[in-house]
Amino acid sequence: MTPASLARLILLGMIWGASFLFQRVTVPAVGASFTAAARLALSAALLLVMLRLLRRPLDLRRRWRGYLLLGAFSAGLPFLFFALAARQLPAGYLAVVNATVPLFTVVLLWAVMRQRPSMSKLAGVVVGLLGVAVLARYGSVAFGVPSVLAFALALAASLMYAGSALYIRRHYADTDPLVLAGCSQLGAAVVLAPLGLAHLPPALPALGVVLSLTALGLVCTGLAYVLYFRLLHDIGTEKAVTNTFLVPIFAQIWGAAFLGEQPTWISLAGSALVLLAVALVFEKVPWMRRR
Q1: Which of 56, 121, 215, 276 would be a feasible disulfide site paired with 117, CB 3.0-4.6 Å?
Q2: Alpha-helix residue ranges (DSSP H) falling in the chain
Q3: For residues 127 and 111, is the Cβ–Cβ distance under 8 A?
């Protein structure tokens, strides 16, 4: 990996980790629905402008129904669910639950495509769920119905991320990844637009909230997609997905630095279990690799 690619990988982890911080700022001020809808609108606008400048064909007339469906389940509903969960959960917790996407991918591959996982991947699923359970029951958030619902929403969003990734692999393997990102973000923005318009803030939010929402849409979503696809091209999927390890770490750092979300030893233990689970799923633990 070149120094430039390593720098992009770290930058992507920092940006995606910050997305949970910005949600913790915007959701209490403008609501979860408006946060998710505005984030998608800004991201779609940025990506479509880039695609226009690059003169990439979008083929919207033929594929608009598929883009609406894909956008709803790959971005629209997950963004909304994470925004709703941000009412209760710290930024670091949201990022840790988001890291369970590879675990759900293993389960879906086994259940839907009959691809039996290795022992390392199975162990990763068990360890990851244990880590989330530790966070939910013994972490710094008071255990109760609101926190359990928040964890459930975040896990449902991660499940949708995993399912949509497999759907893309099966139905959109021949589509330009940047075109797919832009069109799916556009589809998600269209799906959530009515919900966002129905929950417009009654007054102009504070400058910090506006800046956080702008950064969430343009940087943490639009620019992040561009960085991610560049990494996929330069270093391949196996190395690019290692940003899964970086996002929770940076989310914990940003939450502690800017929101005062000091992690407890229990929450750190739960986070470590989830990161270990991701390593097991990617078969990065030497003694558990498939021979």
Answers
A1: 121
A2: 3-30, 32-54, 60-71, 77-85, 91-98, 101-113, 119-138, 145-171, 177-198, 207-214, 224-235, 237-240, 243-258, 265-281
A3: no
3-state SS string for 208-239: HHHHHHHHHHHHHHHHHHHHHHHHHHHHCHHH
Range of the domain at 125: 3-288
How do residues 31-87 score in pLDDT, each as one tens digit?
Answer: 999 999 999 999 999 999 999 998 888 888 888 898 999 999 999 999 999 999 999
Distances 235 to 219, 240, 278 between C-alpha atoms, Å: 22, 7, 19
**Contact (CB, 8 A) for 19 and 98:** no
- The token duo for 37 is 């809808």
- List, in order, residues 6 or more apart from 190 with CB less than 8 Å away: 68, 71
**CA diameter of the chain:** 60
Q: How far is CA 65 from each of CA 41, 54, 59, 172, 196, rounded to the nearest angstrom?
A: 18, 24, 11, 13, 21
Q: What is the reported pLDDT for 190?
A: 96
As for how many domains the chain has, the answer is: 1
> What is the rounded CA–CA span in Å between residue 205 and residue 55?
36
Q: Which amino acid type is present at position 30? A: V
Whole-model pTM?
A: 0.90
Measuring CA to CA, which residue among 150, 290, 151, 177 is closest to residue 232?
177
**Digit-coded pLDDT (tens) for 174-230:** 888 889 889 999 999 999 999 999 999 988 899 999 999 999 999 999 999 888 888
d(CA 227, CA 167): 22
Among 87, 34, 23, which residue's Cα sits nearest to residue 193? Answer: 34
